[in-house]
């Protein structure tokens, strides 16, 4: 499989508009409060009847300090005692949800995100993992993909050894940028020594995959300063990079109001940084997975993409399309059967649900036949840069050219611009179109027109 990218500045400028990241289709904006506890239980029952493995996501919302760029659902506090009542409730939810899923279903994937999961003490993390093992069928032989997000400022050699002993075998390190001026501007002071010590400790303890998170478009960044950060990290050769575009949306995220907008790099500088990142990472042997993600050619994400097994869910790219995703904790989102489900976003509502023994469902959406069809189309494009019409026709018993006549007509301009090639058998995304894969997927999104202003720009 050709996993190369081509940086065409003119195309990127013309196609740089707002759009979804497609961690789901329909996107989370379609979830509504008419979907609650009863609807979720019905979909769990249907999911159990179908069988198959599970993926668990546990949300730990706490952070010691606030990073001004952050758009995550988090609770900033230096008081570690605040985690205790939340942990009690999370364990209650694990027991409640675990009792509803067929115990024979193996948990092939597990992910702790946040916030900062390592905000918890070792004793708290052990309790959380023990509770999960008690109520869900986790692997005991290290064959599951069990991952955790860590803040190197909250982590040391001892913590890494403890996480490995708990069963984690994949790790993602938050960094964003090493430049001291950028770090000060976004209130995240983090040294190279802290970061690389954690990376090296993870390798020593046998973590099978290491990922570094970076963000481009932060205040005071330039192509030269970000290149220096990237070169320092490349010397340690992590297995994966996640290089995200900073979306400045202060009207939605209050902490972003503390960023000095005058210090944000111009769109032209952001494009220079992006081009540099793509060039340096591909020169270093990494392949472009899609949507900000790069990986070594022997990484399981790169292999899954070549083998046609890559998937995309609320945590990003995944190697397991066969797993139902169970969201646990405040604000978490899951996908069970043909429904998406989100928990309450506020701690008091979550606490009240747990106190009364209710599933903490805030809202959800049940997909109809058209949603499921369009999700399959978008997933093929965003994961594999390829769309085989015959495969979709056989799976959904449609005539692709008839069902998607309007969409195929709208793709012609992208074909003429060199983003895709297209014939009667399918669509192939060309190297020049891979950085703009969101735009191509957007052609098949029936909900987009009324919601577009609520998404970040694609580049």
From TrEMBL:
Keywords for this protein: 4Fe-4S, Cytoplasm, Iron, Iron-sulfur, Metal-binding, Oxidoreductase, Porphyrin biosynthesis, S-adenosyl-L-methionine
Keyword field contains Lyase: no
Pfam families to which the protein is assigned, alphabetical: HemN_C, Radical_SAM
Record's catalysed reaction(s): coproporphyrinogen III + 2 S-adenosyl-L-methionine = protoporphyrinogen IX + 2 5'-deoxyadenosine + 2 L-methionine + 2 CO2
Subcellular location(s) per record: Cytoplasm
Pathway(s) where this gene product acts: Porphyrin-containing compound metabolism; protoporphyrin-IX biosynthesis; protoporphyrinogen-IX from coproporphyrinogen-III (AdoMet route): step 1/1
SMART domains from the UniProt entry: Elp3
Tree of life domain: Bacteria
EC number: 1.3.98.3
Cofactor(s) listed in the protein's UniProt record: [4Fe-4S] cluster
Cofactor remark from the record: Binds 1 [4Fe-4S] cluster. The cluster is coordinated with 3 cysteines and an exchangeable S-adenosyl-L-methionine.
UniProt-recorded Gene Ontology molecular function terms: coproporphyrinogen dehydrogenase activity
Domain Radical SAM core: 48-284
Quaternary structure annotation from Swiss-Prot or TrEMBL: Monomer.
PANTHER family according to UniProt: COPROPORPHYRINIGEN III OXIDASE, OXYGEN-INDEPENDENT COPROPORPHYRINOGEN III OXIDASE
Family: Belongs to the anaerobic coproporphyrinogen-III oxidase family.
NCBIfam families: hemN (TIGR00538)
Name under which the protein is recorded: Coproporphyrinogen-III oxidase
Organism: Methylomonas subterranea
Lineage: Bacteria, Pseudomonadati, Pseudomonadota, Gammaproteobacteria, Methylococcales
């Amino acid at each position: 499989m050709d996993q190369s990218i081509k940086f065409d500045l003119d195309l990127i400028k013309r196609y740089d508009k707002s759009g979804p990241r497609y961690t789901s289709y329909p996107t989370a904006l379609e979830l509504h409060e008419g979907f609650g506890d009863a609807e979720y239980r019905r979909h769990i029952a249907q999911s159990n009847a179908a069988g198959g493995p599970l993926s668990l996501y546990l949300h730990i919302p706490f952070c010691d300090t606030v990073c001004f760029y952050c758009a995550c659902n988090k609770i900033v506090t230096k008081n570690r005692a605040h985690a205790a009542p939340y942990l009690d409730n999370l364990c209650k939810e694990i027991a409640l949800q675990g009792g509803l899923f067929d115990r024979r279903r193996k948990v092939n994937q597990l992910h702790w995100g946040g916030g900062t999961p390592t905000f918890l003490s070792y004793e708290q993390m052990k309790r959380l993992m023990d509770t999960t093992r008690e109520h869900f069928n986790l692997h005991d032989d290290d064959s599951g993909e069990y991952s955790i997000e860590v803040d190197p400022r909250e982590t040391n050699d001892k913590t890494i050894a403890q996480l490995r002993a708990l069963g984690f075998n994949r790790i993602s390190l938050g960094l964003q940028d090493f430049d001291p001026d950028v770090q000060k501007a976004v209130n995240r002071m983090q040294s190279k020594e802290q970061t690389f010590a954690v990376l090296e400790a993870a390798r020593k303890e046998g973590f099978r995959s290491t990922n570094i998170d970076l963000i481009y478009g932060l205040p005071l960044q330039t192509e030269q300063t970000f290149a220096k950060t990237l070169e320092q990290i490349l010397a340690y050769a992590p297995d994966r990079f996640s290089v995200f575009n900073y979306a400045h949306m202060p009207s939605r995220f209050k902490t972003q109001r503390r960023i000095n907008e005058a210090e944000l790099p111009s769109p032209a500088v952001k494009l220079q940084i992006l081009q540099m990142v793509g060039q340096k990472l591909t020169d270093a042997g990494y392949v472009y997975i899609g949507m900000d993600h790069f990986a070594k050619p022997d990484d399981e994400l790169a292999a899954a993409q070549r083998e046609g097994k890559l998937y995309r869910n609320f945590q990003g790219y995944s190697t397991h399309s066969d797993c139902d995703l169970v969201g646990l904790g405040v604000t978490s989102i899951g996908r069970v059967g043909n429904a998406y489900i989100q928990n309450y976003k506020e701690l008091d509502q979550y606490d009240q649900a747990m106190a009364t023994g209710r599933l903490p469902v805030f809202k959800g959406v049940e997909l109809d036949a058209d949603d499921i069809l369009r999700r399959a189309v978008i997933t093929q494009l965003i994961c594999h840069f390829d769309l085989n019409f015959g495969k979709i026709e056989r799976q959904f018993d449609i005539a692709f050219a008839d069902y998607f006549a309007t969409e195929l007509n709208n793709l012609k301009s992208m074909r003429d611009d060199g983003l895709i090639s297209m014939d009667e058998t399918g669509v192939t995304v060309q190297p020049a179109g891979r950085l703009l894969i969101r735009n191509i997927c957007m052609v098949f999104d029936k909900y987009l027109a009324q919601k577009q202003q609520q998404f970040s720009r694609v580049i």
